[in-house]
Every structure is written in C-alpha cells, then in structure tokens.
C-alpha cells in the first residue's frame, strides 16, 4: 500500500500562515538580503535565495519575510507569495531542529522507502508534515533526491543518508532526538535545518571540506575500470605532430 | 576498440579531496581553460561542434549547434545557465560529479562562457542537496581566487562572473524555460517557445542552458581534441557518458562508458541482479522514458538505439526492477510523482495526473473496473502530446509502456490488490518489520 | 473560397497565405492560427486565449492539427492554436476536419470539468459561461470521472469588489495576466502548484486596482464574481444596451444590463478604438448614485422659504416668473454631466432665450486664460485618428503629461499608454510633483516640478512631431501654463491634446457653454460667427460681448440681484465651496435642474427633476472629440425629463421657443451648424506668474483621484473601499525641514487639514501633495487650489497653534 489517502480538500492552501507574525528578521538580515540581490544582473533573481535566508532566520516563510522580499525587490507581496508557495522547500509553519525527508518515489518506495516512512512515523509518533512535540524533528515525504544508486535514501537537513534500513533509521532518529552529533555518510556534520537554509541562501558555513569525495556506489565504475585496467583512450597526437607529442604514449588497448 | 569503461569525468572521483582546486590542478585541471583562452571563441565552438557532443540532460541536442544559435548581433548580454536541477527519478550522475569534482564543471562553465561570449554564468542546482551546494560554492570561490573566474581571466582580458544558485524544490525546473523563470525569481513554469532561450532566455537575452555533464565534458574535449572524443561511442552518439545503475542490482552505481554500451554489459559489471532474482523491467533514462524489459538487454544504450526501441536514452538512469516488483504499484508511484511535480500551468498535466493517480490507486487495490485499462490508455492519449511541456509526456510514457509490457498485471488490478500479487516486503532490500507497510 | 484580412489594416506585402481546413486564408504575418480560423468562421474553442492578453497556451482547449508547417513537414503533436503563429503555406486542421483535433479538444474539456463543481444553476456565470457553452457544444454527455473533486473554502474576497471561487477556476490565468500585463497591478497571482494551483493574493494587500472589475468580465467561468451583482440576476433575464460612460472624458463604450427598470450591472463594451474591451471600476460599478432616497422625482418650488413639491406647470410658471424678473442679470452654470444635446440646449437657451453670454460649464477652478485657450486650440477641432486619439497615443514615440494623471483622471488613456509602453516602447514623460503610481506603471520619466513651474519644466523637454503632449484641465490654475503648452506645440511640432476630467466637458466646449464661444467654436466677439448662428437659430440678434464666466457669475450672485440657472454641479467642485454656497444663497433667483437633492437644490427657488443617465438619449464627446452614444437604457411610460426638454418648456413659457426639444433635434441642429471655419480668437499672450511663496511656505500640489469623495460613488460602499488611502506627500528633504514624520497639517487660506504622511523620495522640494477631493476633506472647503502657497507642520506643532490634530480631519479656523 502506498499508505496515503488521496487528498482533495485543501482548507489551508493558497498562502503562508498570516497568523504567526513572529519574526527574527533584523536590519542585518535585510542587509544580507540586499547583498543577495546584488549578486544578480537583475535583483528579482535573488528571490529564491532570499526566501532560503528568511527560513534560516524565521524557520519558515514568515509574513515579515515575504514583505521584506517584496520591498527589497520592488515586487508585490502577492508575487512573492506565488513563488513561496510554488516550491516544496519553503515551509509554511516552523519545523523541527532537524528536518527528515524520506524518499518514496517509485524506486526508493519499492526498495523499502515506504516501510521506512512508516517506521519513522511510528517511532516519532507523528505523521508526515508534522513535528515532534519536543521540536527536535519534523518529517516529510520527499520525491526523488538524485541518489538512486544509494536507495533507499533518507535526507536530514538536505544531507544524504544512504542505503537506509530499519536499524540505521533507529540509530539516526535516536541520535537526532538526543541532540548527539550526527555525520552524514556523504556530507558534513549535521547542522540544524535553519543553518542549512543559510548555506542555500549563499552564505557558506565552512563545512565544504568535510565528508568523502564520493560514496561507494559513485565509485563503482571507477573501481571496476581500475581493476580491469580500463581507461579512456589517450588523446591522438596533435597535427602537425611535434616531437613531444610523437613520443607521448599512444594507441589503445 | 575502446575499453568497456572509459573514466574521464569520473576519473578523479576516487582521489583524496578531489574537490579541492590544488588536487584538480595536479591532474591537469584548468589546462583546458588556458588552451581555450589562447584560441578564439569561434575555434572553441567549432571544436565542440566537431566533437559531436550531445546534451546529456535527456534531449540529446548537439551542444555546439545549440551554442551557435546564440545570435552574434544581439545587443543584449549573453548568459550561460547550467542545469544542475537533477531530479528525474533514477537520475543520480550530476550530483556525485559536482560533489567529487566541482572544478570539472566550473572549468567547463568558464570555457563555454568564453565560447558563447557570456559574461555572467549561473549554476542552477536543486536546493535539496546541501553538501553539493557547499562544494560548488567553494569551487567557484577557489576559481575566483586563482584567477580562473572574475575579471581578466589568466590575463586574457576575458571576464566572467559565475554564480551558484540554489533552487527550492521543483522537478519542473529541470525544464529549461521553467528553470529560467525560476532563476528570474518567478514560479518555475515553462515558457512559450518560440522565442527559444538562445534568442530570448534569461532576462529576455540570448541564453544557453546546458546540463552539468554536458558542460563538464567540455574541458576534456578542449584538452584532448574533438577526434579523441569522437573516437568513443557510436556513429551519431559520440563520446563517453555516465550511466547510473540503480534498483535491484547487486552493486548499483555510476559507470562511465562510451555511448552504445548495453545494459547486459553494465549489469555484468555490477554483478547482475540481486541474488536469486531476475530483471523484470527497467528504465533507460529515468521514469520519463518508456520502460523496457529483459528482452531489450542487448540494445545499444545510445540516442539512436533507444529511439529505435520506442524509448529514449534520457539521462541514462537505468533503474532495474526485479520480478518481485509490482508494475502497477511502481507506475502509481511514478504518476504520483508527476502529479506532485506538475507545475499546474496546463490542463492535461494538472488534471490528467490528478485523475490517473485516483484510477491507478483503484488498480493497486484490486478495485479497478472492466474497461478501466482502456480508460487509462484513453486518458494517457488525451494527455500525451497535448500538454505545454514534456513533463506530462514523461508521465504518459511510463504508464503506457507499463501497460504495453505488463497489461496482465493491470487486468489483475480488477480483482486482486497489487500487494497480494506482489507482496511488497519482497521488493524491499531489508526485512520489513512487523507493522510497517513495505 | 479565399478570405483576406480587412483592407486598410495591413499592406499586401505583409500578407501570407495559410490553409485552414482546406480554405485558403490571407493573414498578416504574425497572425495566430486561432484568429486566422475566426476569419473563415471557424470558432476553435478556447479559454485562456484573449486577444488583448499575451498568449499563454495554458488551457490547451484550442488544439489543432498541423499536417504541414508550410515547409512540407507536419508537426508531430497537436498544437495550441492560440500560440501558433501562421507561417506561409501552413496547413491547419481544426476540429471541423481533424479527428485528432476533435479528440484532443474533447479530452481537454473532460479534464477541465473533472474538478469543476456542478453548481451552474446557482452560478452567476451560468447562461453566459464559456465553459458551460463549450461543455454543451463539445463535451461528453456523461462524465467518465469517478474520482473525488478538489474542494476549497469559498468564496474568498480578493477585494471588496471581487469574490473568488477556487473550485470553479480553470486556471486560465486571464485574471492574473490582466492584472500584470494590462493594468500593472499584480496583486493577484497564481499561487501553489500542480493540482493545487490557484489564484491567490497576499492577505494584507487585497486586489485594489482601479481596473479590478475587468477580471470578473474576462473570467471564462464563474470563479470571479462581482460582490454587487452576485445573485442579482440571470444573464438571460437581462436586457443589454450599449452606452457611453458618464464618469470621465475617456468615452468608454459600456454595456448596461438592466432588469425590472434597474441597471443591474455594467460591463466594458467592445470598442477597439477607444477602451478596447476594458473599463475602470468607477465606470463599471458606480451607477447607483441616482437611485437613493434623495432622487428627485417631482418639481420643487420655494414657498415662504421652504421647498415644497409642485406640479410641472406650477414649477414652470415659478421659474419663468423668476427669470423674467432677473432680466439680463442672469447666468447659466452647467456641470460636467451633460450630454452634447443638453449642453447645446443650455448654450442656446442662454443666448437665444435669456439673451446673455453668461454661461460657463467649468464648475471647477478655471481661468480666463483657459477660456481663450479652449477657443483657440480645442473648440471646433474634430476627431483625427492619426493625429490625436487613442490610436495616435499608441503609435507616438513620446507622450508628455502635463498637469495630468491619466490613471486618476482618464483611466483608459492610462491603459492605452501602458499598452504602448509595453508593446511599442513608448516613452512617457510626466511633468508632475512626483511619480504617481500610474507614472511608475508607465515607466515614466519624472520631471519633478514644483506647482507653478510646469511651463518651465515643459520647455526643457525635447519633442518633435512624434510627440503628443496631453494637458489636463488642472492646467487652468497655473498661470501661463496653457499658453506655454500651445507655444511648445507650435515650436516643436508636437501635438497637443487637452484632456478634461468630466464626460460632458468636451461637448460643452463644442456647444458653446463658455462666455466667449458659441457652438462650433465660434467666437462670441466675431460678428460673422454670430451671423452664422443667428441664421441657424432664426433670431435677430445675439449678444456680442463676452459673458461672465462661472466665478464672475457667482461673484455677481453674491453681491445680489443676479439670477442663476444651474444644471448639475456641486459647490465643492469649485475653488471655494463657501463662495458658491454664498452665491447661491444671495442670488436673486436660482433654478436648478438636478437628479438628486444637493447643496444647489437646497438653495434653489425652483427645482426640476432630471432624468438619470440611463434614462436619456444623447451623446458624449470624449477627449478625442469622438462621439459616444448615451442610450436610453430604462424605458418607462413616464420617461423622466431631460435637461433639454425642461429648457424647451421654459423657453416656450418665456415666449421664445428653443426650437429643439429632443436629443435628436438638438444634435441635428448642432451638426447642421457645423464647425467654425473663420479666424480663431488668438491666445491671450499674458504670461502669468505663479504665486510667490513666502519663507516657510510650500506649494500645494493636488489632483482628483479616480475614487474619491465624488457623489457619483454614493451607494457603492464596496467601490469606495478600494480607493487609495488618503495621504499627503512630501519629499524627504521637505519632511526633514519641517520635522514631519507620520502626519502633516496643511494650512492655508484660513483653513487646515491633517493627513497621514507619505514621504516620497524624488519628489519636488518645497511641495506638499494632497488629494483634491478626499471624502470628508475636499480642498474646496479651504479654498485651496493647485499651486497655492500653504504652510505645513507636524500635527503637534499645529495643535499648539490651535489648528487641529486628528488624522484625516480638517476645519476652518
């Protein structure tokens, strides 16, 4: 079973949450927004990263954030709202410190993603789209995250957790709930979801050098080639041939 | 005869800290840029044309020709936009490339920008891949510091700004015109064509949009020559490319091989299907390409070979499913994906996928009615080729090909739930716990 | 059969040949397939397509088959004919001849109906709904859909005027494209995505656009409905009449729909040369002001100081007696609501019956310079499409706006300018104190100008024959500005258009409702002109000396011994409302022809009830001098009297028959008279000097906003809710200089006014802008006009001076 009902009644769609007017946006945030706008030949291009920044500050797309974007980019709040509600990474309501996404697009679902989503729901006692009472974890069903050779895949704060199974999920959730340091097997030490959003807004957090060059599956072909001595052909000698080129190793296997 | 695997783009992925500029340079990185800057932009474009490089993002359009469509006399600035929105189900080649060796892409961006006369290039990367965005951001910063990007690159007088741009979750932004709207800070919905991006793309200016792997292939072509590149692959599908093997195979992963390799060859290299199971169906290039079965194992995985089999090479995302898998369930999940990712702009995609999901859920539950298979096909006929962009065509492709090859399973959906025909826990890679749905 | 585009629209070399369903059609390059098909009478079903909006290709209803693109190759997929440009030799097969196209269209309507509620019987659109019509014409009889329908809470107020039902919406994006492309007010947009996509807005910013009603009209389903029309009628119970809008000088063609002797709604008409298919919300929604309890239905006569209902003969006798007593000490004041025919009646009544040139339509701040300017430049000029028209605006290279805010004062001029800016790269320059919302949307270059310095600013602009200068009637109060504009046009070759604010103004100029002009632009002082008119009217003589203008008549009335015949004006329209009231009170005798009780009727001796706009025939002349018909929408057994009919009755009773009593007769006589071909009166060469501002004073800038305190908006509270907030504006430097922050008190002429403050970067210094006629605070109560010196200060400082405090309040010290 795909275990989710077909939704047809949408009482809360169409907008961000206007009722929650809380914001942590400061003059410094506005300056950063302006600096994002300055990266582009036309300022409006900055809207997506600016909304990521809003999330990094307010934990969601806040009314104050929408209004600030509209004002800085000289567009209407409706236009910002149209963008903020189009993309799935923008939250309408605050989530957890960590945001867990379980891939249930066909391949991951079939290979165990559906079961893992059930497991996460059971263990956390929440449904997809909800946040644990302690505010530690929010949960979302996600679509294909471009890591199919590592299926089933789970994302935490948009860091990869590859080749997941029930045991790994247990351990991961336990660590996330207890606030332990968690490292992505193919990424960096986990920050919070809000801190991750700041990186997406274009403000690096200095963790680019953490983690491996590539995951095991990514290296499969390279390793097989090495084992077999396979490689791409060498460049043919340039024409007209120089001495140096003529002496270069040529030929193919 | 070239080798079965030909690592070029993937060659440095096993290197320690391959993402660092110094390590990239140690392998000869940015030599191609120096070489390109020593010739004219026209020469660079000619070389890429001669190489026969075709777009690696799915459509397979000749890259050099795409570049040449940029009008020289247009007074507006020219733009290069790299499509790093990799989201097609099954596709997972660009992400490891940008994580392991982002400089391969950055070098390609600068060379391609030089060729088309662009002073402002963008790498539009999907937002849900934090660490890859970190690596890209760092690589671009390193390239600026080393004088490979920014003003007066390597003293050549050529300037180009490179911006890494994170998306925010929308499969449709992989469609190039939707990507441009998104990059302009709008809702990522496809634009009317014409005008084509080459004439009026980003900011209504001439724009080239290329896939990550396409642009990443450029430095090697500049470095080693068009003839070298063309020596790999088949007559019309030249060069090496990255194939992504996933699903119920023993060892999933990335294989860089000349175009035209077969799935049988790649399956052998990955140890075949998982122990005790056999291949049931597979996608050649993501879920949007019609599925194939075991009888297609020996077809060449190139643009022509796949077209001849009534499918497409797409992104070379080879998702392999074994005999435990319910085709109905898999199709439903794909259609749910398309419903979720439909941008909503046009009627057939927005409403058609909404309908298909509900109908397929009935098949999955064994509650479909007599005539519902025909209804599925008729709905598919009203969607396919009628929508604004190719997204809905992809949805229809997986559905109609599934019915074509496995009509029996859909017929059975009138009586027996898919989970009874194909107990879902058998498809999982692990023992499913009591209580959890597979 | 071969069909060719209308001759004159394109030159032959631009025509290409295509084949629609086998029929050869010649169309201009760039023609969309859907329009080419229309030319041979093939209606391809469509929803998102709208000829005035950019093509979008979203609904996919209009799919056709293209077996040959003109190069021998066919297109593999059906194409949306609304986005497909015809190519030479292209073959297009519509649903008429292609099974593929027919199947595709049938499939599309099925998709559109999946989630559409089956509530046609209670939907306002039912009966005039494109979706309903096409479902009936092309849809399947039975639905194959067994799923659940998408549901949302409904309806949603996207503004005080417009309601949204998201379940009915088919996402054609006509409304959102209109708001962005046509009016430039993107306060509604598509939000969410996929099957959840919907029209949305931002809660704190409803869809308050002057043009919001258009989205209701172009909605192809009942998703957007009108608050005021909701559940009022079924379309098939309405009777439609084409009319011309009475609210400004734009001349919009409208469709007025009535039932049970009441106008139920008004829609934009289809007038490609004027308003295309649009109109403004005032024209659409403001039509109930005459229907209130203050409507006059019977004549009133003052008896022992009190107005009482009287019979028509009694009232006519009373009026005649009063006018006879006044003799030549009488003047005629006409307002802005008059049709050409009525205005002609007043003009003739003044001259031929009362024997005076004391007539003036300008119930607003005006000047002698203006009267001469109108005689010299405006009166007697006929519509010239190529020179000065909506079309000419669209084709001009540059348009200069002087003392004129098109979005506020002539909304269709604004829309046409915006279209020209978007489509043709028109450059707009505005001589104004700041860049208004409308100017910003026109991407106009602002020449920030202190009121009074407009002439100088205008002279600094480069112009040639491809330039059109549009000058508003506000220019009258800036001494020398109208003359300077005329000089500017003469010097540069630019065309000069005078755009009055009210619907009757241009007709009043042409019919001679001015002290210096007879009908057809004939100068009263010119004996040949008078001879012309005498002959036409069959009178022995006409007065030759110029009469008193409105201000002079009112001054004479204040002094006493001067009678007034007044047709449709409000004291607050003038410079100094109290002076008008005093004039009416001190006048020896006042006859009022009016639709509703007003400050004039209160002070009149005899009041005649006059037909509403929907109850009379006639014409308006718009700013282009284009005639627009004012049709009798409501026909009743006892049709209310028009101004003309009352004037004719008075004339009869005075023993000097008017000669015309119906609109048809009046227009025929006016046309027979024709335009003056003799010498025009020269411009007054005086170069006025702007008022000097003492230290500590600033210049007052002001104009009327589209939705303001006008009585025409009465009984449409929802419309007024969408008006702009009432604020004053100053430049940041000025705010700093005077220590202004959130509010400002403007004082002058013994009165004061306190308003919230908007600080506008780039605004002209030493200037404060306030709306002319905000509800509750019309500037005429202070006697202030554009250019007057005023003092400004923070409300706190003003309070210390005893000048008031509360925002939005005003008073006279």
From TrEMBL, chain A:
<comment type="similarity">
    <text>Belongs to the complex I 24 kDa subunit family.</text>
</comment>
<keyword id="KW-0408">Iron</keyword>
<feature type="region of interest" description="Disordered">
    <location>
        <begin position="227"/>
        <end position="253"/>
    </location>
</feature>
<dbReference type="InterPro" id="IPR036249">
    <property type="entry name" value="Thioredoxin-like_sf"/>
</dbReference>
<dbReference type="GO" id="GO:0051537">
    <property type="term" value="F:2 iron, 2 sulfur cluster binding"/>
</dbReference>
<feature type="binding site">
    <location>
        <position position="103"/>
    </location>
    <ligand>
        <name>[2Fe-2S] cluster</name>
    </ligand>
</feature>
<feature type="binding site">
    <location>
        <position position="144"/>
    </location>
    <ligand>
        <name>[2Fe-2S] cluster</name>
    </ligand>
</feature>
<keyword id="KW-0001">2Fe-2S</keyword>
<dbReference type="InterPro" id="IPR002023">
    <property type="entry name" value="NuoE-like"/>
</dbReference>
<dbReference type="InterPro" id="IPR041921">
    <property type="entry name" value="NuoE_N"/>
</dbReference>
<feature type="binding site">
    <location>
        <position position="108"/>
    </location>
    <ligand>
        <name>[2Fe-2S] cluster</name>
    </ligand>
</feature>
<keyword id="KW-0560">Oxidoreductase</keyword>
<protein>
    <submittedName>
        <fullName>NADH-quinone oxidoreductase subunit E</fullName>
        <ecNumber>1.6.5.11</ecNumber>
    </submittedName>
</protein>
<feature type="compositionally biased region" description="Low complexity">
    <location>
        <begin position="241"/>
        <end position="253"/>
    </location>
</feature>
<keyword id="KW-0411">Iron-sulfur</keyword>
TrEMBL record, chain B:
<dbReference type="InterPro" id="IPR019575">
    <property type="entry name" value="Nuop51_4Fe4S-bd"/>
</dbReference>
<dbReference type="GO" id="GO:0051539">
    <property type="term" value="F:4 iron, 4 sulfur cluster binding"/>
</dbReference>
<comment type="function">
    <text>NDH-1 shuttles electrons from NADH, via FMN and iron-sulfur (Fe-S) centers, to quinones in the respiratory chain.</text>
</comment>
<comment type="similarity">
    <text>Belongs to the complex I 51 kDa subunit family.</text>
</comment>
<dbReference type="InterPro" id="IPR011537">
    <property type="entry name" value="NADH-UbQ_OxRdtase_suF"/>
</dbReference>
<dbReference type="GO" id="GO:0045333">
    <property type="term" value="P:cellular respiration"/>
</dbReference>
<dbReference type="InterPro" id="IPR011538">
    <property type="entry name" value="Nuo51_FMN-bd"/>
</dbReference>
<dbReference type="GO" id="GO:0046872">
    <property type="term" value="F:metal ion binding"/>
</dbReference>
<dbReference type="GO" id="GO:0003954">
    <property type="term" value="F:NADH dehydrogenase activity"/>
</dbReference>
<keyword id="KW-0408">Iron</keyword>
<dbReference type="InterPro" id="IPR037207">
    <property type="entry name" value="Nuop51_4Fe4S-bd_sf"/>
</dbReference>
<dbReference type="GO" id="GO:0008137">
    <property type="term" value="F:NADH dehydrogenase (ubiquinone) activity"/>
</dbReference>
<keyword id="KW-0874">Quinone</keyword>
<keyword id="KW-0004">4Fe-4S</keyword>
<keyword id="KW-0830">Ubiquinone</keyword>
Automatic annotation (TrEMBL), chain C:
<dbReference type="InterPro" id="IPR009010">
    <property type="entry name" value="Asp_de-COase-like_dom_sf"/>
</dbReference>
<feature type="domain" description="2Fe-2S ferredoxin-type">
    <location>
        <begin position="14"/>
        <end position="98"/>
    </location>
</feature>
<dbReference type="InterPro" id="IPR019574">
    <property type="entry name" value="NADH_UbQ_OxRdtase_Gsu_4Fe4S-bd"/>
</dbReference>
<dbReference type="InterPro" id="IPR050123">
    <property type="entry name" value="Prok_molybdopt-oxidoreductase"/>
</dbReference>
<comment type="similarity">
    <text>Belongs to the complex I 75 kDa subunit family.</text>
</comment>
<dbReference type="GO" id="GO:0046872">
    <property type="term" value="F:metal ion binding"/>
</dbReference>
<dbReference type="Pfam" id="PF10588">
    <property type="entry name" value="NADH-G_4Fe-4S_3"/>
</dbReference>
<dbReference type="Pfam" id="PF00384">
    <property type="entry name" value="Molybdopterin"/>
</dbReference>
<dbReference type="Pfam" id="PF13510">
    <property type="entry name" value="Fer2_4"/>
</dbReference>
<comment type="function">
    <text>NDH-1 shuttles electrons from NADH, via FMN and iron-sulfur (Fe-S) centers, to quinones in the respiratory chain. Couples the redox reaction to proton translocation (for every two electrons transferred, four hydrogen ions are translocated across the cytoplasmic membrane), and thus conserves the redox energy in a proton gradient.</text>
</comment>
<dbReference type="GO" id="GO:0048038">
    <property type="term" value="F:quinone binding"/>
</dbReference>
<keyword id="KW-0411">Iron-sulfur</keyword>
<protein>
    <recommendedName>
        <fullName>NADH-quinone oxidoreductase</fullName>
        <ecNumber>7.1.1.-</ecNumber>
    </recommendedName>
</protein>
<keyword id="KW-0004">4Fe-4S</keyword>
<keyword id="KW-0479">Metal-binding</keyword>
């Amino acid at each position: 079973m795909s275990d989710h009902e077909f939704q047809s009644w949408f009482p809360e769609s169409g907008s961000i949450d206007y009722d929650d007017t809380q914001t942590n946006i400061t003059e410094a945030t506005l300056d950063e927004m302006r600096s994002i706008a300055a990266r582009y030949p036309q300022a409006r291009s900055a809207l997506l990263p600016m909304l990521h920044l809003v999330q990094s500050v307010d934990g969601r797309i806040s009314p104050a954030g929408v209004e600030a974007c509209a004002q800085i980019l000289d567009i209407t709040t409706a236009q910002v709202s149209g963008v903020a509600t189009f993309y799935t990474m923008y939250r309408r309501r605050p989530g957890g410190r960590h945001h867990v996404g379980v891939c249930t697009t066909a391949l991951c679902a079939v290979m165990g993603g559906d079961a893992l989503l059930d497991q996460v729901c059971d263990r956390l006692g929440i449904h997809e789209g909800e946040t644990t009472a302690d505010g530690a974890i929010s949960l979302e069903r996600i679509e294909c995250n471009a890591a199919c050779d590592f299926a089933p895949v789970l994302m935490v704060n948009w860091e990869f957790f590859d080749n997941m199974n029930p045991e790994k999920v247990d351990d991961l959730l336990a660590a996330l709930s207890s606030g332990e340091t968690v490292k992505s097997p193919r990424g960096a030490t986990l920050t919070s979801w809000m801190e991750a959003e700041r990186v997406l807004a274009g403000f690096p957090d200095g963790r680019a050098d953490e983690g491996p060059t590539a995951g095991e599956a990514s290296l499969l072909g390279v390793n097989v080639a090495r084992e077999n001595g396979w490689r791409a052909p060498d460049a043919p000698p340039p024409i007209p041939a120089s001495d140096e080129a003529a002496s270069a190793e040529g030929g193919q296997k | 005869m070239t080798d079965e695997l030909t690592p070029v783009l993937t060659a440095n992925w096993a290197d320690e800290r391959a993402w660092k500029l110094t390590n990239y340079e140690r392998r000869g990185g940015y030599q191609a840029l120096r070489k390109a800057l020593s010739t004219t932009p026209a020469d660079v474009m000619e070389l890429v044309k001669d190489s026969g490089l075709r777009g690696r993002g799915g459509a397979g359009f000749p890259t050099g020709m795409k570049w040449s469509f940029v009008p020289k006399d247009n007074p507006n600035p020219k733009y290069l936009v790299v499509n790093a929105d990799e989201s097609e189900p099954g596709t997972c080649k660009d992400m490891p490339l940008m994580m392991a060796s982002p400089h391969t892409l950055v070098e390609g961006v600068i060379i391609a920008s030089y060729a088309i006369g662009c002073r402002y290039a963008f790498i539009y990367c999907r937002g849900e891949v934090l660490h890859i965005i970190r690596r890209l951001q760092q690589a671009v910063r390193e390239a600026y510091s080393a004088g490979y990007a920014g003003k007066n690159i390597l003293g050549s007088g050529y300037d180009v700004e490179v911006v890494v741009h994170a998306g925010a979750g929308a499969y449709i932004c992989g469609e190039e015109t939707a990507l441009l709207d998104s990059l302009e800070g709008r809702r990522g919905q496809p634009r009317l064509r014409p005008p084509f991006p080459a004439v009026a793309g980003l900011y209504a200016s001439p724009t080239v949009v290329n896939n990550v792997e396409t642009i990443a292939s450029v430095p090697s072509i500049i470095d080693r020559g068009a003839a070298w590149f063309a020596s790999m692959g088949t007559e019309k599908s030249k060069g090496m490319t990255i194939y992504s093997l996933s699903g119920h195979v023993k060892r999933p992963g990335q294989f860089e091989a000349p175009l035209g390799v077969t799935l049988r060859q790649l399956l052998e290299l990955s140890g075949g299907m998982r122990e005790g199971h056999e291949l049931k169906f597979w996608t050649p290039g993501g879920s949007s390409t019609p599925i194939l079965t075991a009888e297609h194992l020996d077809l060449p995985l190139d643009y022509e070979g796949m077209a001849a089999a009534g499918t497409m090479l797409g992104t070379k995302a080879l998702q392999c499913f074994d005999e435990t898998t319910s085709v109905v369930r898999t199709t439903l999940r794909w259609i749910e994906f398309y419903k979720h990712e439909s941008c909503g702009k046009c009627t057939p995609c927005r409403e058609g996928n909404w309908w298909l999901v509900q109908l397929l859920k009935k098949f999955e539950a064994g509650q479909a009615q007599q005539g519902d298979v025909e209804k599925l096909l008729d709905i598919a006929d009203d969607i396919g080729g009628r929508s604004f962009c190719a997204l809905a065509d992809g949805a229809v492709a997986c559905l109609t090909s599934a019915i074509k090859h496995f009509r029996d399973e859909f017929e059975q959906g009138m009586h027996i739930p898919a989970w009874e025909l194909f107990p879902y826990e058998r498809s999982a890679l692990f023992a499913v716990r009591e209580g959890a749905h597979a | 059969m071969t069909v060719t585009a209308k001759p004159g629209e394109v030159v032959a070399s631009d025509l290409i040949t295509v084949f629609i369903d086998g029929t050869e059609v010649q169309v201009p390059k760039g023609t969309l397939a859907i329009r080419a098909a229309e030319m041979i009478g093939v209606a391809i079903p469509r929803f998102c397509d709208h000829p005035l909006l950019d093509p979008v290709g979203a609904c996919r209803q209009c799919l056709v088959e293209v077996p040959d693109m003109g190069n021998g190759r066919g297109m593999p997929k059906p194409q949306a004919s609304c986005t497909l440009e015809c190519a030479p030799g292209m073959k297009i097969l519509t649903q008429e001849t292609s099974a593929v196209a027919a199947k595709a269209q049938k499939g599309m309507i099925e998709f559109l109906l999946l989630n559409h509620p089956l509530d046609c019987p209670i939907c306002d659109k039912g009966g005039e709904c494109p979706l309903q019509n096409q479902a009936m014409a092309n849809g399947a009889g039975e639905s194959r859909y067994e799923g659940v329908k998408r549901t949302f809470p409904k309806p949603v107020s996207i503004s005080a005027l417009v309601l949204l039902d998201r379940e009915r919406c088919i996402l054609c994006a006509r409304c959102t494209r209109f708001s962005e492309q046509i009016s430039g007010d993107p306060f509604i947009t598509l939000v969410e995505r996929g099957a959840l996509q919907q029209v949305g807005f931002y809660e704190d910013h409803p869809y308050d656009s002057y043009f919001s009603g258009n989205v209701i009209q172009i909605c192809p389903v009942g998703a957007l409905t009108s608050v005021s029309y909701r559940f009022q009628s079924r379309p098939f119970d309405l009777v439609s009449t084409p009319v011309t809008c009475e609210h400004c000088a734009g001349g919009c063609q409208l469709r007025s729909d009535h039932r049970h002797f009441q106008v139920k709604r008004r829609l934009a008409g289809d007038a490609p040369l004027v308003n295309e298919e649009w109109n403004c919300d005032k024209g659409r929604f403001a039509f109930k002001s005459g229907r209130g309890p203050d409507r006059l239905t019977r004549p009133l006569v003052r008896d022992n100081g009190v107005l009482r209902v009287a019979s028509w003969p009694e009232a006519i006798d009373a009026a005649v007696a009063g006018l006879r007593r006044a003799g030549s000490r009488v003047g005629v004041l006409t307002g802005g609501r008059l049709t050409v025919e009525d205005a002609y009646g007043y003009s003739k009544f003044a001259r031929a019956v009362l024997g005076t040139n004391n007539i003036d339509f300008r119930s607003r701040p005006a000047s002698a310079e203006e009267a001469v300017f109108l005689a010299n430049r405006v009166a007697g000029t006929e519509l010239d499409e190529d020179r000065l028209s909506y079309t000419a605006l669209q084709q001009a290279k540059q348009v200069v706006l002087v003392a004129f805010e098109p979005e506020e004062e002539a909304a269709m001029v604004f829309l046409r300018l915006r279209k020209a800016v978007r489509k043709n790269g028109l450059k707009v320059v505005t001589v104004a104190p700041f860049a208004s919302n409308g100017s910003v949307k026109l991407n106009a270059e602002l020449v920030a100008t202190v009121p009074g310095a407009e002439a100088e600013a205008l002279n600094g602009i480069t112009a040639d024959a491809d330039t059109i200068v549009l000058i508003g009637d506000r220019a009258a109060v800036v001494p020398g500005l109208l003359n300077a504009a005329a000089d500017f046009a003469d010097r540069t070759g630019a065309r000069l258009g005078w755009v009055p604010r009210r619907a009757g103004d241009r007709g009043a100029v042409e019919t001679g409702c001015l002290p210096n002009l007879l009908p057809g632009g004939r100068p009263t002082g010119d004996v040949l002109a008078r001879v012309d008119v005498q002959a036409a009217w069959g009178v022995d003589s006409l007065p030759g000396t110029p009469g008193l203008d409105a201000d002079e008549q009112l001054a004479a009335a204040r002094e006493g011994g001067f009678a007034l015949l007044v047709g449709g004006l409000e004291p607050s329209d003038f410079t100094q409302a109290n002076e008008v009231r005093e004039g009416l009170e001190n006048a020896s005798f006042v006859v009022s022809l009016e639709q509703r009780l007003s400050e004039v009727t209160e002070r009149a001796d005899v009041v005649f009830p006059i037909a509403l706009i929907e109850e009379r025939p006639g014409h308006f002349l718009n700013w282009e001098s284009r005639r627009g018909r004012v049709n009798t929408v409501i026909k009743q057994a006892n049709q209310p009297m028009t101004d003309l009919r009352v004037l004719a009755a008075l004339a009869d009773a005075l023993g000097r028959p008017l000669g015309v009593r119906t609109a048809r007769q009046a227009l025929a006589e006016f046309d027979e008279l024709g335009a003056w071909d003799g010498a025009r009166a020269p411009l007054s060469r005086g170069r006025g000097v702007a008022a000097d501002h003492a230290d500590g004073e600033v210049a007052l800038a002001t104009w009327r906003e589209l939705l303001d305190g006008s009585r025409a908006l009465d009984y449409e509270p929802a419309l007024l809710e969408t008006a702009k907030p009432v604020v004053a504006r100053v430049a940041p430097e000025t705010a700093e200089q005077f220590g202004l922050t959130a509010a400002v008190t403007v004082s002058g002429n013994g009165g004061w006014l306190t308003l919230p403050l908007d600080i506008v970067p780039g605004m002209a210094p030493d200037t404060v802008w306030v709306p002319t006629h905000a509800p509750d605070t019309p500037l005429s109560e202070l006697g202030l006009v554009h250019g007057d010196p005023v003092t400004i200060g923070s409300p706190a400082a003003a309070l210390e001076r005893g000048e008031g405090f509360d925002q939005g309040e005003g008073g006279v010290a």
